[in-house]
Design brief:
The protein is built from five helices and five strands. With 178 residues, the chain is an alpha+beta fold. A five-stranded mixed sheet has the order 1-2-5-4-3, sandwiched between helices. A hairpin with an 8-residue loop joins strand 3 and strand 4. The longest helix is centred in the C-terminal third of the chain and has 26 residues. The chain is globular.
């Protein structure tokens, strides 16, 4: 069956130490295409947090010089299997996904200085520094995938309050670290 006739099935799996290698490999491919624009490349999302359950999708965050130049790379990224989704709900972002129903990677592109960069990196760093809360997040995702295996919107909505609580805790944690 081709991807056009399939329903996306959400999967949450045990942490896989190869995710870091997959991130590095994909980052190199992306960098080869967009090297003129990229300032930094970051591994974000649950696959960047050791030990927790995650959707097996590698999230790559790119900090770039000028967000307005990113669309000119759409064709080259499509040769790697990426689909451009534009801002996709977040102003000032360019979002790409690899695999519509059997997704393997996401690329989140933000211009340097965009507050979303700090938000994603701080969330990741907080979760790494607080493995008990990271484990709770992984357990929540396992519960949600049982309830919403074919409903990504409900799955995401089920995580929203937890993520907001972690964002608040992250803010307090960062204030204490200063």
């Amino acid at each position: 069956m081709d991807e056009q006739n399939q329903v996306r099935e959400i999967e949450v799996v045990k942490y896989n130490s190869s995710w870091k290698k997959e991130f590095m490999k994909e980052s190199k491919l992306i960098e080869d295409i967009m090297k003129e624009e990229i300032i930094k490349i970051h591994h974000i999302g649950s696959t960047s947090i050791p030990g927790i359950f995650a959707k097996p999708v590698i999230d790559v965050l790119l900090e770039v010089k000028d967000i307005n130049n990113i669309d000119k790379y759409n064709n080259e990224l499509s040769k790697l299997g990426y689909v451009s989704k534009g801002e996709y709900g977040i102003s000032g972002r360019r979002f790409f996904l690899k695999g519509v129903y059997h997704r393997t990677h996401h690329i989140h592109v933000f211009e340097i200085g965009n507050l979303e960069i700090e938000k994603h990196l701080n969330f990741r760093d907080y979760m790494i520094a607080h493995p008990e809360e990271a484990k709770m997040y992984g357990e929540l995702k396992k519960e949600l995938v049982i309830k919403f295996k074919h409903d990504i919107d409900s799955y995401c909505n089920g995580r929203n309050q937890f993520i907001k609580d972690i964002d608040r805790k992250t803010y307090e944690w960062l204030k204490l670290k200063k």
